[in-house]
Amino acid sequence: MRWTVVDRWVGLTFMALALIWCWLVETTISADRMEGAPGPRAFPLLLGEILFVLGGAMVVLSLIRPAAAAPDEPRPEPLLRDEVALVGGGIALLLLYAFLMDKIGFLLATPIVVVLALRVVLGLRGWLRIAVVAASLTIGCDLVFGVLLQANLPQGTWISLQGD
Amino acid sequence: MFDALQHAAHMALAWDAVFGVALGTVVGLVFGAIPGLTFSMALALMLPVTFAMSATAGMAVLIGTYMGGMTGGSVSAILIGIPGTPSAAATVLDGHPMAKQGRASVAMGTAVIVSCFGGLFSLFVMIGVAEPIARLAIAFGPAEIFALVLFGLATICGLAEKSMVKGMVAGIIGLMLVVVGIDPIMGTQRLTFGITDLLQGFNLVVAMIGLFAVPQVLTTFLDYRRNGPSNSIAMANKVRAELPSWRELASNLWLMVRCALIGTGIGAIPGTGGPIAAFLAYDHARRFSRRREAFGTGILEGVVAPETANNAVTGGALIPLFTLGIPGDPATAVMLGGLMIHGLSPGPMLFQNNLPEVYAVYIAVVLSYLLILLIQLAGIRYFVKVLQIPHHYMAVAILVMCAIGSYAIRNSIFDVYAMGILGGFGYVLLRLGFPIPPIVLGLVLGELLESKYRSALTLSAGNLDIFYTSPIADFFFAATILMIGMQLRSMIRKAWADRRRAHKRAAETGPAAGRL
Fold first, then answer.
1. Buried b / exposed e across B48-86, counting CB within 10 Å, b at 16+?
2. What is the pLDDT of residues B409-434, one digit of tens each?
3. Is the CB of A135 inside 8 Å of chain B's CB atoms?
4. With contact defined as beta carbons under 8 Å apart, do B98 and B286 qualify?
5. Integer distance in angstroms from the first to the last C-alpha of chain B?
6. What is the SS3 assignment for A161?
7. What pLDDT shows up at residue B441?
8. Does residue B516 fall inside a structural domain?
9. How many CA within 13 A on the CB side of residue B345?
10. How far apart are the first and last CA of chain A?
């Protein structure tokens, strides 16, 4: 697949997203104005309209640009199943980390997520090595951020090892 | 004046003041270097520490923290591709590619040296022409700042890499993210859908961590799964601890002066700040460089320009603070608090009533930059060791630090979720060929753009003339049009050249080639 084809579909997607955005803006933001100045709705609406036009521009450019115009242009890397799985897994892990930090606190959530990242996402072998990395990252971050820099680290709402 | 200077030197070189500068500089450097911990946070943390100190020592702590924080952002920007502060976002563009080429220490050494140059340059500008600059800066009303911000947004054209349209789409996405939350003028909720966490909107630093760091972590994971650890080790072997040569620095001297002027000028305008100055300087350097096409691939000018400009902002920001008592950003607002707590009232009378204290602050700035130079240049050989950690372990550590940093900004778990989602979105956009820096630029400038536009129209009761009757605004509008025009011209030229090449190739290889 060429970039022109990818851009055409992406442009169409952005046009659709822009329409949804404008609809949301129109239906959820108040149309009040203040002494002749635009109200809170004007700027977001304008952004949606610009995005629609730019999406359209992407579609038009992909149609009028001949494929042979840049024959040396590299083609987009195809999206393989392993990439989808790994990127999806990585994002899911981050969201799980946020959830766990909220529920069981930083000190318990971090080793769990580090073990998952090393073992499941990266496929590393050797439990001892994984355990050492997880423990040192957790303790190191707690010492640097929590103790030394006095930054607030999340405490769990279900379990909290940090105390107040 | 000589007496005042002598008195100032006596105060600024007292052991408590020197210790204060050193403490502030180290704290600022650490907070600046860690994504998620801002130097505004460091200043707020250090402010109570100064209560028990003398006025000079207290100000020395705050000055050290401010200068150190502004400089520290480049460390993580270059080493791991995540800007430590928003001001260092433009440094990632060439600094991190330099690290990938095994030139991290050269990039970091250059960043420190030019940062000190920019900071000291702006200090001397401040000493010399503070009053006229302050008078000019105060002439910037909402209409003028709107025009300046629009000009700043036009740099998207330069950051757009291959496709101007894609760059503009990315910029619009950044602006759209800013819209979510409370409306800055009327306080109305916008696109919050009843979710309380969305009321505070998307934080700039959180978005920056997500957009820069998460795609990089995911790419490292993928690279490790596909190719194993071999690539990481090969990369680590290339790490050398060397500094930029005098020749390299001397060849960029004129660029440093120009970018220091940009930074000082932007810094003097309240409500602007380091990120705008850094992006404008980067675009300026790219536009006037003979190696324009090489920007973004890891060249020294790409580090020199933003780092000189963002540190020059420090001196510029002190101009309205000292002469008019107007803080330009959260960091200088904390400094204003510090000045007032220690009995110094910023404004025109400051120079009459407290001249020795003002000079002592100047000396503290110089001391702080000397310390920064010393600490960072000595530390480079240790900082680059970070690159020798196998990249897959580093990626996991970054993932953990991204979560901590995102949480620490506002103590909000929502920010960690937002960082993860924005990071995934950033990865998809990168895969589709969209550049990330315009999104950050949109996030930085969005609120200012909208609020100044609406404030200007509120002042003029809806009359658009307010934008056209101001010579300063007209200047920036003209510069914006010129900048976009120049970019369009070069794009059209490139498109025609491609087309001509394609026709020539088709004619040479026969009609079938044209239908490829």
1. ebbeebbbbbbbbbbbbbbbbbbbbbbbbbbbbbbbbbb
2. 889 999 999 999 999 999 999 999 89
3. no
4. no
5. 77
6. coil
7. 84
8. no
9. 4
10. 56
Classify B12 in phi/psi space as left (phi over 0), alpha (psi -120 to 50) or beta: alpha
- State the Cα torsion B386-B388-B390-B392 to the nearest 10°: 40
Q: How far is CA B316 from the centre of its chain?
A: 14
3-state secondary structure (DSSP) of residue B21: helix
The closest alpha carbon to B61, from B116, B22, B32, B119, belongs to: B22
Q: Is B420 part of a structural domain of the chain?
A: yes
A27 touches chain B (CB under 8 A): no
pLDDT tens readout for residues B22-72: 998 988 888 888 876 777 778 877 887 787 788 888 888 888 898 888 888
Query: Are A157 and A102 in contact, with CB atoms under 8 Å apart?
Result: yes
DSSP notation for B43-96: HHHHHHHHTTS-HHHHHHHHHHHHHHHHHHHHHHHHHTS--SSGGGHHHHHHHH
- Kindly report the pTM of this predicted structure: 0.83
Is B104 a domain residue? yes
Q: How many CB atoms lie within 10 A of CB A134?
A: 22
Strand (E) or helix (H) holding B190 = strand B189-190
Cross-chain Cβ contact B463/A36 below 8 Å: yes
B187: containing domain: 2-509
- How far B396 CA sits from the closest chain A CA (Å)? 7
Q: Residue B462 carries which DSSP code?
A: T
Return d(Cα B438, Cα B172) in angstroms, integer.
8
Q: How far apart are CA B516 and CA A65, in angstroms?
A: 12
Tell me which H or E stretch contains B425.
Answer: helix B413-431
Structural domains in chain B (count): 1
Nearest CA in chain A to B182: A40
On whether residue B115 sits in a domain, the answer given is yes
**Nearest-angstrom CA–CA distance, B18 and B31:** 20
| Residues 48-87 in A contacting B (C-alpha not used; CB under 8 Å) | 48, 50-51, 54-55, 57-58, 61, 65-71, 76-77, 79, 82-83, 86-87
Residue of B nearest to A140 (CA): B397
| Residue B380 structure tokens | 């480079």
Mutate to test the interface with A, among B38, B39, B169, B231 (most CBs of A within 10 A): B169
Q: Which amino acid, residue B321?
A: L
ipTM over 0.90: yes
Residue B4 or B203, more confident:
B203
Tens-digit pLDDT profile for residues B293-310: 888 888 999 999 999 999
Residues B207-224 pLDDT 10s: 988 998 899 899 989 988
Q: Which residue has the tokens 């589709």?
A: B432
